[in-house]
Amino acid sequence: MGKNPVSIGEENAAEEPLQTSSGYDGSLFNDGDERGHFAERSPRRETIVGAQTPAPKEAAEAHYHGHRERLRNRFREHGETALADYELLELLLFRLIPRRDTKPIAKALLERFGTLSGVLGAPPALLQEVKGIGEAVALDLKLIATVSQRMLKSELRNKQVLGSWSSVISYCHAAMAHENREQFRLLFLDKRNVLIADEIQGRGTVDHTPVYPREVVKRALELSATAIILVHNHPSGDPTPSRADIEMTKTIIDTARPLGITVHDHIIIGREGHASLKGLRLI
């Protein structure tokens, strides 16, 4: 028997550091930078007595060296509350781009992608469209984003998901809000509502993902899950559920109920926030 998909749609619109022989401690506040150790050195001019003096280019670079130290000191002494978003991003870029003034790059990233979350969530190809961001830096930024997502996900481990709802939303938002295609994600829970698995069941286009209710239920049975939470994103940014979202959710509920599987909620993630079908009393 063929499987008929029910579609999610929207009606109204979604280097590892080089390590020297002396070692590298990885500190953000270390003035030296391991990437520059093997970089080509700027030429130096010697005085009559043989003393070395900085070339004009090096002297010109000195204007941001003091700024970097001041910014590090502010973060060291007062924490993130003493820094604007562009300064936090600039502080991060110090390590990724050691020999350039990173303030204009940080500001350009925020102008392009709107927020820190938007910067870290942006695809590498789009990050590289910002002047000063190459492939290596784009991948470094995505690595940081992935570590952040894993950290948020770890907050759900061995906890009752329904009692850690804000952690669920934070994780799903970090993982999906800035995706440029729809994703349909499933959170499988055991009888104590503890997370068993978190899986992406399907990927689609900017406004459509095919969803197979029987496959959703089949996977829940394979994992011995007794409950599931449905999650998908709207790349348009608006999390408002469409009629297709509601109908698809009801179909999955009706398919799962006879087999003792509860659908706790369907969460829609957008850049502007999230919507809960249960909270909206749509299921």
UniProtKB/TrEMBL annotation:
NCBIfam families: PRK00024.1, radc. One of its GO terms (molecular function) is metal ion binding. Gene3D superfamilies: 5' to 3' exonuclease, C-terminal subdomain, Cytidine Deaminase, domain 2. Residues 161-283 form the MPN domain. This is DNA repair protein RadC. Residues 1-63 are annotated as: Disordered. InterPro entries: MPN, RadC_JAB, RuvA_2-like, UPF0758, UPF0758_CS, UPF0758_N. Belongs to the UPF0758 family. It comes from the Bacteria.
